[in-house]
Design a protein that fits this description.
Elements: E1 2-8, E2 11-16, E3 27-36, H1 38-46, E4 55-56, E5 60-68, E6 80-83, E7 86-87, H2 93-96, E8 107-108, E9 120-123, H3 125-129, E10 133-135, H4 142-145, H5 148-161, E11 168-172, H6 176-187, E12 192-196, H7 200-207, E13 213-215, H8 222-229, E14 235-240, H9 246-254, E15 255-263, H10 279-283, E16 287-290, H11 296-307, E17 317-321, H12 326-335, E18 340-344
Parallel strand pairs: 11-12, 11-14, 12-13, 14-15, 15-16, 17-18
Antiparallel strand pairs: 1-2, 1-4, 3-5, 3-9, 3-18, 5-6, 6-10, 7-8
Helix pairs in contact: 1-12, 5-6, 5-11
The protein binds zinc ion (2 copies).
Keywords: Metal-binding, Oxidoreductase, Zinc
GO molecular function: oxidoreductase activity; zinc ion binding
Pfam families: ADH_N, ADH_zinc_N
Length: 346
Amino acid sequence: MKAALLEGINKLRITNVPTPKCKQGEVLIKVGVCGMCRTDMKAYMYGQRDLRLPRIIGHEIAGTVVEMGEGVTQVKLGDRVQVAPGLPCGSCSYCLQGLHHMCDYVQIMGFHYDGGFAEYVLVPNNGVSCGVLNKIPEELSFQEAAITEPLACSINMQESLQVGLGDIVIIFGAGPLGILNAKLAVARGANKVILIEINENRLAIAKNREFHYCVNPLQTNSIKEVMEVTGGRGADVVIPCCPDPDVVGTGLAMLSKRGRFGFFSGLMMNFGSIKVDFNLIHYKELRVYGAYGCSSLHNRTAVEMLVTEKVKVKDMITRCIQLEEVISGIKMIADMKEMKIVINFE
Ligand SMILES: [Zn+2]
Ligand SMILES: [Zn+2]
């Protein structure tokens, strides 16, 4: 089969590798679409904590079941599925609480195991038995289904933050994850969503969507703007969807008393020190949460939201490429002109 094999930093090769064969409990998926994101770009440019090389990367996978090992009962041949990429052990203390993405022994497809930048991908035994395969109906395209995983990560964040009815939500960054978080906040009943973005091109795209305010902090005083919009009260929730460490201090200053702050994006590496007034957490009784990845349950919830169109993502896919173009896809992610880029195998 054809695959994009990452062999080292900046060394990615389109090559032929043997198509995997299913052993007991395993499932082989013919990839329909695999989404690309900044994590793939980072893996290619710098490596990643969980990445084991050489590796077929790609973790936003949707496709069709074409082969099954003995004992598989969760799916059948021909099922269209989305794959939750984190494979939990199923028995550690976190797994037993249903927190599969916090599993002490989690293995991630596209990092520890081969992923979806290939014509076929093998889903290991423990993934299949822990429910990483989510069936998707005919009416949901593979392209939309490939956005399940980033939506699931956003659901993980917003469940912790309890984003809900009447909330005023601020999102830093109008890239794919910023837009997804904004759409999700609207779907969960947020009263207003304010997007803050320095890239004019992305700001212009965001302005055409269903959000209430889009602000460029290089042109206006964003804290002042938020205070005006909220009648001097501040926002209920702040979610940074960008790696800029400066948004931590700005975000805390924008929150109302008892506001909630979510560390959704990892901050850029080696940023040195940042100026944050942590006393704001004390005086305003702020709550601070972190989120990393998603469980198979978050993926099931995400599929449900996509199928019922509570969150619509068709308008986010601005570029479909072939597997051979994966390096140019990574460059497109880096220059931030496209919204969501997916690799199409059909
Ligand atoms: Zn991703
Ligand atoms: Zn576990």
